[in-house]
Amino acid sequence: MKSGLEKEQQHSNRTNLKIGAMWSNFRDRMSLIHNRLNEIRPTYGGKALLIGAGNGYDLPLSQLEANYESIVVVDIDTDSFKELLKQVSCPEKFKFVHVDVSGVGSQIPSLRKLTELEIIQMIDKLEYRDEWTNKLEGSFDFIMTCHLTTQLVSPFFMMEMLAMKGNISWEYNMAVNRLSERVINGLFQSISTILSKEGLFFHSTDTFELSYNESTDTWRKGSEEILKAANFNIDFLHEVPSLVYTDLISKGYHITGSTLPDTLFETYEKLPYNYISPWQFSNEGSFLKTYVVFSYPFILKAES
Fold first, then answer.
1. Is the Cβ–Cβ distance between 72 and 51 less than 8 Å?
2. From CA 155, how far away is CA 160, in angstroms rounded?
3. Are strands 47-51 and 140-146 parallel, antiparallel or unpaired?
4. Residue 268 maps to a domain
5. Is 239 domain-assigned?
6. How does 105-135 read in b/e, with b if 16+ C-beta sit within 10 Å?
7. Is residue 224 situated within a structural domain?
8. What is the pLDDT of residue 34?
9. Dist CA 195 CA 181 (whole Å)
10. pLDDT for position 286
11. CA distances (Å), 63 to each of 67, 176, 271, 297, in order?
12. Nearest CA to 13 among 130, 131, 140, 155?
């Protein structure tokens, strides 16, 4: 039986079928970043792992299949892999493993018969369980989280509560935020156990949403500040001073699931490079939406 998390992600992937064609510029940007990464930390010819690749519309698939001997895709949505394979030249290089990397999906009961307080209490008891790395063979030279961490738990819990009550309380939102942090901490730890000693872990995540709704004349919090710092040109998002982004994160204007784990540097060393890219979802009519994607390369911390 499919979990609520799996159903929510399948719905999201089906929705993105309609807009994937407009992401060519974003894929080109990801391709340039990948080239740069292989100059910094060569992993050509090895084994790659794509976590949460979905339909693959946001990934430089042709470059990935040219660079690696084999590519394993893990995802909660089986059908999306079929769409991904339509975009590659060597489908035999790709292997799919159906897993839920959130580590909590199997623990979540039906929410519709619970009160909000009961749901909050349940959320606070959920703990990440690694139920997926044991389904993989060996270690990997390149691992990428494919704009995944903001989708792991937050969309499901938010959509469920909106359907039940029509609004999200501060207490509920904070419970989901705490769960998201626990899940990402666990996920990063799991990844460290399957990354080869000389391998590269590339974490890419949508971090801010820039959106304006003309019908309500409202901006999403943080949008105006970021656009002003970028001279109202999304191609200049990478030139926005880091202090602007840091300040907005401290105010809580970032997307739930986009921040790095507190325990990160116990296991990883961050390479001195950050990549910021615009990921456009809508640019027509009265509703504009672009995500600001932060991408970070990591290697395993050297043993002392």
1. no
2. 8
3. parallel
4. yes
5. no
6. beebeebeeeebeebbebbeebebeebbeee
7. no
8. 93
9. 21
10. 47
11. 6, 36, 22, 18
12. 155
In this structure, are residues 39 and 61 in contact, taking their beta carbons and an 8 Å threshold?
no
Q: What are phi and psi of 44, to 5 degrees?
A: -55, 145
| Strand, helix or coil for residue 201 | strand
CATH of residue 181's domain is 3.40.50.150
The predicted-structure confidence for 82-115, as pLDDT tens digits, reads as follows 999 999 999 999 999 999 999 998 899 889 889 9
| Nearest-angstrom CA–CA distance, 194 and 110 | 33
Lowest mean pLDDT: which of 62-71, 200-209, 233-242, 282-291? 282-291
Whole-Å CA distances, 26 to 20, 46, 94? 10, 25, 22
Range of the domain at 189: 4-207+256-299
| Domain assignment of residue 193, yes or no | yes
Mean pLDDT along residues 192-213: 95
Instruction: Give the pLDDT confidence of 269-282 residue by residue, as tens digits.
Output: 999 999 999 998 87
Residue 248, amino acid: L
Mean pLDDT over each residue of the chain, to the nearest integer: 90
Residue among 24, 42, 91, 15 at smallest CA distance from 299: 42
User: Residue 47 CB: number of other CB atoms within 10 A?
Assistant: 19
* Structure-block tokens of residue 187: 């996920």
Decide if pLDDT at 6 tops 70.
no
Distances (CA, A) of 179 to 104, 148, 172, 175, 274: 9, 15, 11, 6, 26
How many structural domains compose the chain? 1
In angstroms and rounded to an integer, the radius of gyration of the C-alpha atoms of the chain is 19
Question: Does residue 7 have a pLDDT over 50?
Answer: yes
Can you state the angle between helices 116-125 and 170-192, rounded to 10 degrees?
Answer: 20
